[in-house]
Every structure is written in structure tokens, then in C-alpha cells.
Amino acid sequence: MPTNITTEILGEHPALDSISTDLEITTTWIRGGEGLIGFGEWKSTSVKGNNRFADARKWWHEQLATLKIQNNVHGSGTGPILFSSFAFDPSEESKLVIPEIIIGHKGGKSWITWIGEANQPSISKYLKSEQQGEINFESGALSDTEWKSRVATAVEKIKKGDLEKVVLARDLIAHSSEVISKRSLISFLTKNYPSTWVFLVSNLIGATPELLVRLNKSLITSRILAGTIRKSGDEARDLGLAASLAKSSKDLEEHEYAVRSVADALAPYCSSTNVPESPFVLHLANVMHLATDVTGVLNDSAVPVDIFALIASLHPSAAVCGTPTSIASALINELEEMSRGRYAGPVGWIDARGDGEIGIALRTGELSETGKSIRIFSGCGIVAGSNPEDELSESQAKLSPMRTALEIRE
Known about the structure:
Elements: E1 3-10, E2 25-31, E3 34-39, E4 43-47, H1 52-64, E5 67-71, E6 81-85, E7 94-98, E8 101-106, E9 109-115, E10 135-139, H2 144-159, E11 165-176, H3 182-192, E12 197-201, E13 204-208, E14 211-216, E15 219-230, H4 235-247, H5 249-266, E16 270-274, E17 280-283, E18 287-298, H6 307-314, E19 322-323, H7 325-335, E20 346-351, E21 356-360, E22 364-367, E23 373-382, H8 388-407
Parallel strand pairs: 1-5
Antiparallel strand pairs: 1-9, 2-3, 2-12, 3-8, 4-7, 6-7, 6-20, 8-9, 10-11, 11-19, 11-23, 12-13, 13-22, 14-15, 14-21, 15-18, 16-18, 17-18, 20-21, 22-23
Helix pairs in contact: 1-6, 2-8, 3-8
């Protein structure tokens, strides 16, 4: 017998701090006060291997086949939602979660979706964030000095012509005397980084500024970031820094590789694409990035294309791996000396119509099973003009959102 799933309009804006159920917050996808928050877990699974995106599609459609869907709201992001967090490397586990209850808010409209026979669950009570314990940090796989040495090695290989670009990541480990509050981290990130997509899927939490792909009906959008400069905190000086970033040959070269890789991956699926000639400077709370929004329209293929196919084609892009992909990937495995896990992998949501938003898991951390430690990550694009000291400074700036979220008590 099919399981009922119901979506109805919700009267009031579901601000994060005013939502309460008896279920734990398990998934989020929030940007600028809009998005989705999931509670509980109806079903979940993991996939791995080279066919993980196809396997994820198969599992999702199998679950949809068991549901009797009543959706009075309609539109992208309503009804049953699959939250996904894919590993960077196919040999590692990717996570798929279907929440039991989902609160959504977009364009002034709020809705609630729940699975089961019960009437609409109550969300009127106030749920306080748990207090975090004392936080201590320790080096991850490589010390600062060791990581700079790896950057220097990568630059040498690029200058010799072995490859054009490689993205090198590093990690930092935070330990807490108490269980780290997911809700507290989400609250901080949504408040302080409103132009990013704040996500939580199976203990992977972060605030990414980069959108791998959005599919809304037949319109595809991808936001590519590559090229970074740290903000000074002085508005006039930051305007000058933004101008220098926009003219930096090193950063423009890095950005061009990333944009080209996305445009080439989307081309076979699109009847038309729009790739701006020049990037714009995206201002975040602590850094600025060169950014380009690539858009396209799906072609009328005999075999319908869904978001799973787009993810498989786009990942890994030059923004998180390098160019050429196979050589950059091999160099990453040689130099990083760590498992990326789901860092720099596709993360986001997919609805029953096949629409969705999938970001790249950047500015992120993965909580341990105990919840008392978390590995946070950052990465930098290395090209011929890269300087190890500058790259270390950039990596520290990219660690800042998660590091600060762990340290700040609000």
C-alpha cells in the first residue's frame, strides 16, 4: 500500500529559530532566508562507485514509486525531497536522505511536507540551540609548512607542462568538550553568510558560495567561482582589492579553466548556452571571488535529461579538481595525503519532478559520529603563477566561516 505524503501551505514564515518538532534537524538548504529545512529521516542510503549518480537516481525513483503524493502547493522544491551529498571520489560513500518533515520558504510562500498518515505536525514551539562546549583545533593531514611544500611541488609540475591547474585541499580538526550543535552552526552561517547556500546532509555542514547546477524545468544555471582575495574590512581598500582581483592574470587564468570545464560539460545537453565574456567579483563576508554564471536551455533529446545526468557530467569541475581532470586527480591523490570524503562533492536537493539545486560542498566540515569533533576543509586552485605563502593565506580565509561558526557563542 502506498505511503501518503502531503504538502500544504504554511501560514507564517518558518524562521529557523521558531521551528520545533520532536525530530532532530537533519537536512538544510538555505540561502538569503529562503530554502528547505528537513526534520527526521524517513529513508536513507549510501551509494559508491563510478555509477553512484545513476544508482542514486534509481533509488530515488524506487522510493517515489511507494508514495501517494498530495501536493497542494506545486512548484520547484515542493513535495517529497531527496537531499544528497556525494563524495568527491567515487571510491568513497555518498549519502542520500529523505526527511520525514520538510519546511520550505520561497518567494513569500511557506509550505510544509510530511510523510505518513498524521495531520500536519505542530511546529509552533520554540527550540533553543544547544550550548557548545570548549573548542580546540589541531592540524589535519598536513601542517602549514607541509602543505606549502605540496603547493610548491604542484607549481613545479605545472611549469613543466604536466598539467594546467590543480586544486589542493587541506583539513583542520576541531574538538569540543560537548556535542557540537548543528542548529547553532546553521544559525550562525545563515546569519553571517546570507549569499551562500547553507547545507546539512548526514553530518556534512557548510556554507557554499558555488552552485554546481540548478535545474528548473528546462533552464540550467551554474555559478563558477575561481580566483580569491581576502577582504581587509575597510570598504575603500576592499574596492581596490576587488579591482586588482578582476585584473589579476593568475586569478583570471584559474577562473578561465573552471568556466571552460563547466561550459564544455553542459554543451552536449543544451540547445543554447550563455557564457559571459568576463567574470564579476562576488563579495562575501570575508573574501571576494571571481564569479561567472553560466546558463543553458536543455535540448529536446529523445532520452530526457535529468539533474543526475548533469551532476555526473559536471563533477569534478576544474574549480575543485583541475585541468586536465585525470592528471589533476592523480596529483591530488599524491600530494594531499588525506581523504576528502564528501568535501568538494555535489551537495543539495532534488524533487519528484527532477528539478533541484546542487552546490559544491565548500566551506564545510564533517561531524564525527559522536558529534564532539569535526573536520573542516578548504582548497585552493594552483596554477603556474601561484605562490605557496599566498595560497596558505587563502586557505586560512576559506577555513574562516566554519572555524568562526565553531568559536562564536551567540
